From TrEMBL:
The keyword ATP-binding applies. InterPro entries: Adenyl_kinase_AK6, P-loop_NTPase. This is Adenylate kinase isoenzyme 6 homolog. It is found in: Cytoplasm; Nucleus. The keyword Transferase applies. One of its GO terms (biological process) is rRNA processing. Interacts with small ribosomal subunit protein uS11. Not a structural component of 43S pre-ribosomes, but transiently interacts with them by binding to uS11. Broad-specificity nucleoside monophosphate (NMP) kinase that catalyzes the reversible transfer of the terminal phosphate group between nucleoside triphosphates and monophosphates. Has also ATPase activity. Involved in the late cytoplasmic maturation steps of the 40S ribosomal particles, specifically 18S rRNA maturation. While NMP activity is not required for ribosome maturation, ATPase activity is. Associates transiently with small ribosomal subunit protein uS11. ATP hydrolysis breaks the interaction with uS11. It comes from Steccherinum ochraceum. HAMAP family: Adenylate_kinase_AK6 (MF_00039). It comes from the Eukaryota.
Length: 180
């Protein structure tokens, strides 16, 4: 568990296009405690935390050691939402809650097409979603009681999911209050 007293560290993960950033943004607005949203992909890009560029996949390979070094002090402060398509590199002690977003593969395909992803990248992500790659990763990296799988297909799902996470934060806060 995070040692923070300020706020929890929540990881929102899932295949690209499942709604991580959309959820993180709404959660920051609705959270009862201040939360800072870090879109880890963008964060790495802004700081050039890359070790190479993969031509085949048209994507950069993140320098994981440097990424973790830069994130560590922010995690220590607490009150963080980490939004990324993978989660297994984050140390288990960082996470208070790991949310894995899921989406029907037809809908996911449409979302990724709108992003102008190359066909191969759409296929790869679509297959990963069907095979539950990110969910398996989360389950094998964190204690089962902190991993939550949530459907993210429509606006109603988005609102319900964020309301659920807000409820979880309320309980987290109460637990902290009574144990201090
Ligand atoms: P991610 O951050 O996982 O890559 P996103 O938040 O950028 O995904 O969402 C991709 C697109 O899909 C974006 O146009 C918003 C839409 N979307 C995602 N989840 C949704 C939901 N539950 N309801 C409606 N639209 C959603």
């Amino acid at each position: 568990m995070s040692t923070s007293t300020k706020g929890p560290v929540i990881i929102i993960t899932g295949t690209p296009g499942t709604g991580k950033t959309t959820h993180a943004q709404l959660l920051v607005e609705e959270s009862p405690v201040p939360l800072r949203h870090i879109n880890v992909g963008q964060w790495a890009k802004e700081r050039n935390l890359y070790e190479s560029y993969d031509e085949e996949w048209q994507s950069h390979t993140v320098d994981e050691d440097r990424l973790l070094d830069e994130l560590e002090p922010l995690v220590a402060e607490g009150g963080l939402v980490l939004d990324w398509h993978t989660c297994e590199l984050f140390p288990e002690r960082w996470a208070d809650l790991v949310v894995v977003l899921r989406c029907d593969h037809t809908r996911l395909w449409e979302r990724l097409e709108k992003r102008d992803y190359a066909l191969k990248k759409i296929q790869e992500n679509n297959e990963a979603e069907i095979m539950e790659v990110v969910l398996d990763e989360a389950r094998s990296s964190y204690a089962p009681e902190i991993v939550v799988e949530l459907k993210s297909e429509g606006t109603e799902d988005l609102e319900n999911n964020v309301a659920r996470i807000v409820q979880w934060i309320d309980v987290w806060k109460k637990d902290r209050g009574s144990s201090n």
